Amino acid sequence: MLPNYKDIVELIKKGATIEAQEKIMELREGALELQEENIRLREKVKELEDKLNKKENVIWEAPFYWRKDGDKKDGPFCAHCYDKVGDLIRPLDHKNGVWACPACKNIYKDESYRDPSPHSDSHVWDAFT
Fold this sequence. Notes:
single chain, three-stranded antiparallel beta sheet
């Protein structure tokens, strides 16, 4: 517990200046600790506000998450990475509707993906008929 000013004033009135100086040093140390705690708490509040802001600006459009910034849409972002740890990781576009996350290695197929047609060897047999 920090000493209060009344105690310090009483010590000075009694002529106990060394004890008063010690109490003043305790107050200064306490003030410094409070300032450091205040800084840590402000940083934590900022971190939590940033997380909340990120959550409010992230939207789901299967199979990806997107970040909205006003009228703009940024992304896509890996659903697995965002759901698991809250990270917005951009998957790599492998073309033809196939995407791969460089972090978790998940593979995604978007609406432009088409199954490759099975390789047909029927034209080879046509030459023998």
